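It is worth pausing here to work through a concrete case rather than discussing structure prediction in the abstract. The textbook approach is simple: state the sequence, then state the predicted structure, then interpret. We follow exactly that order.
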Amino acid sequence: MPYLGKNPFDFLGKFLTELPKVELAQDDIFGPSSLAVTNLSTSVKGTNVIPSELTLFIDYRQSAKDTEEIALAKIQAVIDRCKIDGIDVTLRPFYFPLTTYTGYQGKGYQGQYPFSVSMEEPYMQLCKKVLEDAVGHPVKAKPWAFATDTGHYAKKGVKCLGYSPAEIRFCHTPEDQIDIKMMEEGIVGYLALSSALANQE
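Step two, the predicted structure:
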């Protein structure tokens, strides 16, 4: 008698309708944050049982103004608007177990922190000159409009920059590919940067 149970899908229907109404922050460098539901699992495998639990994954790609705390608060506000008596909802960032190459075990944050670096920074000016001297032509600087693990290092105070011979339009698509000439030039650039930065503080 399904009608006697508390169905978490009743909450989910309301929640998915309200979630697109979240106001996403706009950043002058990175543009707006983005939000998408990407996965759903339930506590049952059959089709004739009301699940006791649903797990929903939300991919929230934050601009610099949408910190983790702000992003969670925005989603929590949607949850609060959609509450149904008898159905408990818990929101939390996704961490996964990991083991490093040294054997240390801990938890990893499934996400990347946004960060930006001014081209006026001395080390950025140094990197630009090193690259241009190595590859023989001007190197332009621009924002990366996608996630990168580098944000974890930047959050810890490590000086970071991104340099890649890839084309964003192909990355992580069915047409993912690399231009050999760009790759060869990229290797030259990587070696030059490694040599120049090896003893920098």
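Step three, interpretation. The chain has two domains: 2-109, 122-197. The longest helix spans residues 180-197.
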